[in-house]
Amino acid sequence: MQQPRVWVRLKQFLSTGNLAWQTARPDQITELPDESLDVRLVLVGDRQWLADFETNEPDLYDGLSAYAEYEQDIELNASNITPYFSWLKGIVTTLTALSVSDSALVRLLQAGARESEDQLRMPLCPIWYHQLLAESLMTVDEVLDGNAIDAAITRRYQRAAYLPERAIEDIHKGQVFIDTRGEHIGQINGLTVIEVPGHPLSYGEPARISCVVHSGDGDIADVERKAELAGNIHAKGMMIMQAFVSVALNLDDPLPYSASIVFEQSYSEVDGDSASLAELCAFVSALSQQPINQAIAITGAVDQFGRVQAVGGINEKIEGYYQVCAHRGLTGQQGVVLPKTNLSSLCLRNDVVEAIKAGQFHIWAVDDVEQALPLVTGLPFSGEEDETLLRKISNRINHFHTDEKQSCNSLFKRIKNWFGQY
Question: How far apart (Å, rounded) are the C-alpha atoms in residues 28 and 164?
Fold first, then answer.
């Protein structure tokens, strides 16, 4: 399409099935063939390229072409596991004549599950396999085993680890404040994934989310949005969170408090709704004056009914928080609250897995807000118990209304006394 003269002839051939032959030398008489040709043209590209093709050549796109998609990964099951391993064996055979151990296949499957963010799906890109296997073979003499693949993955991380290591180092030095012990009101450790353009590695980094509550008309201010440091999806998550809180409180009058929620020490744009559960917990904590356990970090999106929904980058988020906790010393109380629907995406580093097995670090999977809030606050959100978060919020609201009436009465008496002097 970048060469109009050639493209015009190709379109004519595709439409008629006959190629309009031309002589190489116009001044020389040449006998031209007249047979028809049977040719199929396969165009490969992403959807944006195909959208351009549809716009520029609607006749070919709609009239003569057949659209098809191919997946970038495959869900392994009993019917395709054998052909998948045969295909994988073919890739290995093109690279080496060495034997491949079972541990290498297991480690390769783990790496593939992490790449596709699904324990049952493996990538289908041959380039990905070629790169990982070729690097693994650099230090192998006899048998390709799991240790060789582990070493290749470690070297790959070390080459691209400058940014994540500097980010975690800022937390270790105290330049970025992340508390992993004790309790605080209106403060919680959220989990984020950082993606830098041009950088091949996305990495997890904990973020302190805080909320303060003050007298107002019920508005929940999203500081990131007002400062134009948040995207539309983040704003959507905030509004959904506000809707759930409004329904859960079930107030006849507007909430007599206003709140302000912010990502502390965040100086770049925040987007996505994966922090909406953490923001909800911080808001409920500030409103009820119930402290949050700082040893627990949390991630997840919420809907208007309080259900916790899956988020992306779950492995990087957990590992980022684990790295901070491990540097300060694991206490056996630290861990991450995540959506239960994300369990199938877990494929963590070996050191994190070993810490979880030893009970030094924990994973809590939840379905809804009712399960998440007791883990971080120690109190149920609602129910028949004597002390719940909703009951503490209700008591505080009633106390505020009482103080407001007393303040109004006191002001009225002062005005009345002032007029009485004259």
Answer: 68
Q: Helix, strand, or coil here: 21?
A: coil
Letter for the amino acid at 50? L
Task: Assess whether pLDDT exceeds 60 at residue 319.
Answer: yes
User: What mean pLDDT, rounded, does the chain reach?
Assistant: 85
Q: Which residues are catalytic?
A: 274, 317
Per-residue confidence band for 80, with pLDDT thresholds at 50, 70 and 90: very high
pTM of the model: 0.82
- Are 318 and 338 in contact by the 8 Å Cβ rule? The answer is yes
Q: Which residues are CB-neighbours of 166 under 8 A, at least 6 positions away? A: none
Residue 176 phi/psi, 5-degree rounding, is -115, 120
Is 90 exceeded by the pLDDT of residue 316? yes
Inter-CA distances, 206 with 176, 295, 316, 355, Å: 10, 12, 10, 19
Instruction: Kindly indicate whether the domain formed by 74-159 is annotated with CATH number 1.10.8.60.
Output: yes
Q: What is the location of CATH 3.30.230.10 in the chain?
A: 168-377
**DSSP characters over 208-231:** EEEEEEEESSS-EEEHHHHTT-B-
Residue 406: exposed, middle, or buried by beta-carbon count in 10 A (0-12, 13-18, 19+)?
Answer: exposed
pLDDT at 26 over 70: yes
| Range 168-377: architecture per CATH | 2-Layer Sandwich (3.30)
Spatial CB neighbours of 255, under 8 Å, sequence gap ≥ 6: 217, 218, 246, 249, 397
**pLDDT tens digit sequence for 262-271:** 888 887 778 8
Nearest of 312, 301, 309 to residue 277 by alpha carbon:
301
pLDDT tens digits for range 352-368: 999 999 999 999 999 99
Instruction: Give the strand pairing for 121-123 and 73-75.
Output: antiparallel
- Look at the alpha carbons of 91, 74, 125, 164 in this order and tell me if their dihedral is positive or negative: negative
Q: What is the mean pLDDT of residues 368-373?
A: 93
Exposed e or buried b per residue across 221-237, where buried means at least 16 C-beta atoms within 10 angstroms of its C-beta = bbbbbeeebbbeebeeb
Residues of the chain with CATH 1.10.8.60: 74-159
Nearest alpha-carbon partner for 96 in 39, 157, 38, 139: 139
The continuous run of DSSP H or E covering 305 comes out as none
